[in-house]
Amino acid sequence: MKYLIAFLTALLYLPASGQVFNSLNRKTEIEKCMKPVYSINEFCRIADSLQMSIDELCDYPVIFPIKEPERISSGFGMRYHPIYRIRKFHTGIDIPKTKGSPVYATGNGIVTRKGYCSGYGNFIEIQHAGGFRSFYAHLSRIIVNVGDSVDIIQQIAYVGNTGIATGSHLHYEVRKGERFLNPMGWCYVLYEKLNPLIPRKL
Question: How far apart are alpha carbons 163 and 171 in whole angstroms?
C-alpha cells in the first residue's frame, strides 16, 4: 500500500515529460533564459518558447502604467528637448494625463527607490524579475514605500508635473542594468497575449 501511495504522490509532481517539476525550478529556468535578454522581440520569443503563463509574464513590466492612454507626447530616443532647447536622448516615453490620474505598477515587483530629483521630480523605481526595472517620474504623489511588494495593476502613485516638465504627464522607463529599453513594446506584451487578434490602439 505504501508503494502505491508513493507512486501516486510522485505522479502528482511529474509533468507529461516525466521530469520533476515545481514552481521554483520553473522560475529559475525562466530567470536563466531571460538573463541575457534586452530586446522585446527576444523576450517574446523566449516567452513563447517557454509557453509562459499570464501569471509568469506578470513578473515583468508588461502593461501600460496608465489606464486608457490617449497618446504618447514624446517617444523613446533622440529628440529636441522642450526646455533645454537641445537635441538630447529621451530615456523613456511621456504619457500626457490629467494631474492626479492614477499610476499603476506595470508588473509584480519590489519598490527599490523612491525620491525626488530636480529633473525627474517625484519618482519611483520597481525591481522586476530578470533584472528588469520600471521607472515612473514627475509624480504628484507617491503611495508606496521602498521595500514594498507591489502587484501588477496596483496603484502606486498619481500623475503630476514635478521636476522639469512642461505639463502634467507621466515619464515612464524600462531599464535593465545600465541600459534604457524602449518601453513601447513592453507596454503591449500582456495586452497582445490576452487579445492576439485585436490591433493596438496607439
Answer: 11
Residue 85 falls inside a structural domain: yes
The C-alpha atoms of residue 44 and residue 56 are separated, in whole angstroms, by: 13
Average pLDDT over residues 24-30: 90
Query: What residue numbers bound the domain in which 99 lies?
Result: 77-194
The three cell numbers locating residue 146: 521602498
Report the C-alpha gap between 96 and 72 in whole angstroms.
7
Amino acid identity, position 147:
G
pLDDT tens digits, one per residue of 76-85:
877 666 665 6
Instruction: Using the CB atoms, write b or e for 22-43: b if 16+ within 10 Å.
Output: eeeeeeeebeebbeebeebeeb
In this prediction the pTM is 0.84
Burial class (CB within 10 angstroms; exposed 0-12, middle 13-18, buried 19+) of 114: buried
Q: Which residues of 139-149 are buried (b: 16+ CB within 10 A; e: fewer)?
A: bbebebeeebe
Mean pLDDT over residues 64-76, rounded? Answer: 92
pLDDT at position 5 is: 40
Within 119-188, residue ranges assigned H as helices are: 183-187
Q: Report the domain count for the chain.
A: 1
Eight-class DSSP state of 199: P
Q: Is 99 a domain residue?
A: yes
Looking at per-residue pLDDT, the higher value among 1 and 133 belongs to 133
Which triple of cell numbers denotes residue 89?
A: 536622448
